[in-house]
Amino acid sequence: MRLRAPTANSNRSTLQGPPMRSPTIKDVAERSQVSLKTVSRVINNEATVREGTRNKVLRVIAEMGYQPDLSARSLRSARSYALGLVYDNPNPYYVIAVQSGVLSVCRESGYGLQIHPCDSNSANLAGELVHLARHSRLAGLVLAPPMSERLELIRHLRANNIPVVRIISAAADPQDGFPCVYVDDRDAAYDITKHLIQLGHQRIGFLWGGEAHRSSPERYRGYESALKDYGIALDKKLIIHGDYSFDDGFRGARKLLALKERPTAIFGSNDEIAAGVLAAAKSSGLEVPYDLSIAGFEDSPFSKQSWPTLTTAKQATEEIARHATQLLISEIDREENDVEKLTVVSNKGFSPQLVIRGSTGPARAAS
């Protein structure tokens, strides 16, 4: 009898072997030597699991590359394991930092994330967000400015039993009954203005951001308070309204630099505005900071990539978003009578810190 040589196909099937399957929760439980329920509790970040057991299960999950099926988990229970992030902001660097902070907590806590950009001026915004939460089975929403600062919208969402946490601009905890993370833009703007005054600047221009954002009037109040405290009269010709954009920074600066008595320093309400001011100064033949000092706000990549680099206020946007997400998950647990499963997270305030760079220097007399 002659033996037939194996075909190419038969060799390939022999070498490949059976297809690899994804690890299951049962596999994780067997290797960890714990029950399926314990693995589930670890995945759900329940505080009733002992720290040693939690670490062992998490180590096995990482080694096996196990990925919980969040959609299936939501379908198996009445509880949803997905959050929504709602924003309307022209600054892409702010949006990216917020997304990164929210997503990091979702991954740690076993939640999915749905990102929802929207038009904050929409007449049906409240209905749109209620539909979003119900149609997508979202457990709750993280709201970024300016939606987060509209109490009538917050009340409508809560009336429809949708947990919400807000990121807002405020000098103190508003204590209005709605959970939030608040940023003291006013105090940081005061510090920036004080820095310019202490460099000898008396004529300091101020460029507003979008008035729909509470951060803009808060930053203006800090600027105004510093001038008052140092005995400098407020000159309304030095104040220009606009939006949080490079173009408005450029246009606003051109107006200020065309004044008969131009400012020796300009404070832009964010770094994009300040970058626009820097471009306007260079197009006018001015040297920064020798002829004009410029300051921004937020410490975005604009502030580090410009030349000279921008004096600004460093805002921990990613950490702010992380805390907001932790607060939201805490609120969801509380509403589902699971308070004991998670340490209660409280409202928290953040204060942006002054960062002095090459765009500000001692005042020179205007020519």
UniProtKB/TrEMBL annotation:
Residues 7-16 have a biased composition (Polar residues). Residues 23-77 form the HTH lacI-type domain. Gene3D superfamilies: 3.40.50.2300, lambda repressor-like DNA-binding domains. This is LacI family transcriptional regulator. Residues 1-27 are annotated as: Disordered. It comes from Tahibacter aquaticus. The keyword DNA-binding applies. Keywords: DNA-binding, Transcription, Transcription regulation. GO terms for molecular function: DNA-binding transcription factor activity; transcription cis-regulatory region binding. It comes from the Bacteria. The keyword Transcription applies. PROSITE patterns: HTH_LACI_1, HTH_LACI_2. InterPro entries: HTH_LacI, LacI/GalR-like_sensor, Lambda_DNA-bd_dom_sf, Peripla_BP_I.
